[in-house]
């Protein structure tokens, strides 16, 4: 089996605070994985270890067979849950930044996505609404020819129309030979694009599997399973 991501007994502690506990996860090539859990469940910590922004405390993680580092970062395209574009920029400046920074950046793809998102290169970043900013950030991330795309809460805080546009962009620009991890707590809006799902709670994967098989086994949507697991 060709795995883009494998973790074995992955642990992360911040002093006495335990963020991840013996977390085991595998992601096959060509699959979209929904990493689902409430705030504080360990989603962002896991993503930061995958993207090389944090180091694990113990256990093992391999991204396309490599330990996270300089080489793995070249094949991972990461959309953080916070805006990362400088306020002084126009959209064309952001495009140039990505072009200079990433060898795998595809400017033609970016131009297509800007057209699809109805964004103009002359627009100032400060003039963009939250939805437009999300669309720009996603377009930049999807324009890289990466092996693994990691999207942290890509539809949080945007209106339903922008949400649909973002989901369509993900589906239409997703390459079959690449994989994707999407974290969200807005499960209902996005579950249709997941191949696999993993539910994370207190730093552990507590349930995982093929999305369609889980729906059939439980006779419920992924959103309903999520609500059942995390009912307060």
From TrEMBL:
Segments crossing the lipid bilayer: none
InterPro entries in UniProt: AAA+_ATPase (IPR003593), ABC_transporter-like_ATP-bd (IPR003439), ABC_Transporter_VariousFunc (IPR051782), P-loop_NTPase (IPR027417)
Entry's Gene Ontology molecular function annotations: ATP binding; ATP hydrolysis activity
ABC transporter domain: residues covered: 5-227
Keyword Nucleotide-binding attached: yes
Entry keyword Nucleotide-binding: yes
Pfam families: ABC_tran
UniProt entry keywords in alphabetical sequence: ATP-binding, Nucleotide-binding, Transport
Protein name (Swiss-Prot/TrEMBL): ABC transporter ATP-binding protein YtrB
Gene assigned in the entry: ytrB_1
